Amino acid sequence: MSTMDSDKVNNIAHLARINIDATKLPEYANSLSNILHLVQQMDSLDTEGVTPMAHPLDVMQPLRSDAITEKDFSAALRKFAPRLEADLFLVPQVIE
Amino acid sequence: MLHTYSLAELSQGLEKGDFTSVALTQHYLERIKQHQEMLNCYISVCEESALAQAAAADTTRARGAATPLTGIPIAQKDLLCTAGVKTSCGSKMLDNFIAPYDAAVIERCNAAGMVMLGKTNMDEFAMGSSNENSFHGPVMNPWDIERVPGGSSGGSAAAVAARLTPCATGTDTGGSIRQPAALTGITGLKPTYGRISRYGLIAYASSLDQAGPMTQTAEDAALLLNILAGHDPRDSTCMSNPVPDYQATLNQSIKGLTIGIPEEYFTAELNSQIGDTLQVAIKELQKLGANIKPIRLPNTHLGVPVYYVIAPAEASSNLSRYDGVRYGYRCENPKDLLDLYKRTRAEGFGEEVKRRILIGTYVLSAGYYDAYYIKAQKIRRLIRNDFIEAFKEVDVILGPTSPTTAFKLGEKTTDPISMYLSDIYTINVNLAGLPGLSLPAGFVDGLPVGMQLIGKDFDEATLLKVAHQYQQVSHWHREIPNMFKGAK
Nearest CA to CA, how far is A54 from chain B (Å)? Predict the structure, then answer.
């Protein structure tokens, strides 16, 4: 377990693809450290041999046949695109 | 005074022809116009479509094809997708988003002939306990407009409490239906995980999110749950357990029922006047014939730490979809793709959402996954096991919903941890997947106190029955804040 400093916040923010202004890094480091400190209370409990629980009711999710069930919303969905060209989502150039 | 009627009373009035759905809807639209500016509980008001739905409902009723809720108005939390109506989730990121389809909850309300008055304000992406994290500004508590209504379903709670809708939906990931219900003096039910479809519900933490009714009374919650519950193949976590008629068992006696009182819910963290208020309510339940039994839930104190690993982890994954490419906000003049992603997300998300994404990204990152995420999932099992053990001896668990009454706007915004601790009594119920209900149990210094009932998996019927029986001998759920009692 550890605490956060500005460098670590900067690195995590890059992984999460969020710009954090340099002047705000210490503030984030402080609040994230406080949250990690709270989370550290988990260490007080020995969980050796306990199976992690992913589903709250501890049941398996059902399987269904591999058939298309979704309606085709693509035309409606494209209407919300910030930039569109020839029905393709447009982003800044990636390859020079 | 149509706004003082419960859903059950409105349903009877419509059926008898005492008033029409159009008249009822107009009454509520007028009340919204009068009070919205003060409370800020709606993000969108759908006047035109509401009146059209009401007229259609009156026609349906004239044909003899009405259901119990046909023609009754409802307010929907703004994280439920509504075709053709803005669904912002309280965020700048989705402020231009008009959903192309209805969430399952909306479909079911529409199928029952309900009338959507509008979309309610909320903490951004349901992350918060005070409704102060909304892009659309905070919501005020109708009992004291200098105080918060709780969150994240604060708009729904305030709207029901001020009678600006007869009922609303909320969603609850760590207490977001029950805590605001407690702070505004209404009844709120978080059903068992998987009881109501999450299709079209904008995800925060998918293993915890669950929609549910927010109403004046337990009977109203039962009426609404009757139409909302049930299997939906479009949500793979939605369960196919049979749906009972929740109204049918409300009038059964609770004589002989055993209610467990967890020692860990009545400690120094709880405001002592709330504790005293609940003791009075417990005595009422004893008078109704319930047996009271002290129980232990030993891992209660670890719920908040576990939640602040699991929920942010799931959120960091769920919210990765907001990247400015396909829909939602996009930053101006991105210089390259990375700049597009990073500035869009920096500008589109609020502080608390960014904080939770960062924590989630950290606990899932290489080298930390086992220490945080797996550890949290292990304790999650132990927390659920505590409840399973307790339910071998009791039928229902009773405790406070929130450690305090409604706090002042701005009181906790600079200290996220103190805000997180508002949910100490509600979070474990989400971690364990169980149903939980908050109902009004009295007042402390003029502010409502919530009592929480926790049930076994899929045993919403017992929670509703206990709450309904208590509401037959108490009047707290009938109290309306002075400013909102008026004839209009």
Answer: 6
Tell me the chain A residues in contact with residue B235 when contact means C-beta distances shorter than 8 Å.
none
Tokens in use for B187? Answer: 């009844």
Question: How many beta-carbon contacts under 8 Å exist across A and B?
Answer: 172
Where residue B90 sits, what CATH number does that domain have?
A: 3.90.1300.10
B378/A53 touch (CB, cutoff 8 Å), yes or no:
yes
Q: For residue B156, give the nearest of B173, B133, B179, B135 by alpha carbon.
A: B179
Strands (E), B281-339: 291-295
Question: Residue B113 falls within a domain, yes or no?
Answer: yes
Secondary structure letter of residue A52 according to DSSP: P
Q: Does the beta-carbon distance from A32 to B358 stay under 8 Å?
A: yes
Active site residue B77: yes
Distance from CA of A88 to the nearest CA of B (A): 9
Q: Decide if B11 is catalytic.
A: no
B314 domain-assigned: no
Which of B239, B346, B384 is closest, CB to CB, to A53?
B384
The tens-digit pLDDT sequence of chain B (488 residues) is: 899 999 999 999 999 999 999 999 999 999 999 999 999 999 999 999 999 999 999 999 999 999 999 999 999 999 999 999 999 999 999 999 999 999 999 999 999 999 999 999 999 999 999 999 999 999 999 999 999 999 999 999 999 999 999 999 999 999 999 999 999 999 999 999 999 999 999 999 999 999 999 999 999 999 999 999 999 999 999 999 999 999 999 999 999 999 999 999 999 999 999 999 999 999 999 999 999 999 999 999 999 999 999 999 999 999 999 999 999 999 999 999 999 999 999 999 999 999 999 999 999 998 999 999 999 999 999 999 999 999 999 999 999 999 999 999 999 999 999 999 999 999 999 999 999 999 999 999 999 999 999 999 999 999 999 999 999 999 999 999 999 998 65
Total structural domains within chain B: 1
Catalytic site includes residue B152: yes
Range of the domain at B49: 2-256+439-449+459-484
Q: Let me know if residue B284 belongs to a domain.
A: no
Whose CA is closest to B405, among B212, B206, B148, B175?
B148
Cβ neighbourhood burial of B111 (10 Å; 0-12, 13-18, 19+): exposed
Total residue count of chain A as it appears in this document? 96
Q: Hey, what amino acid is at B53?
A: Q
Domain spans of chain A, in order of start: 6-44
Residues 6+ away with beta carbon under 8 Å from B485: none
Tell me the three state secondary structure of residue B332. coil
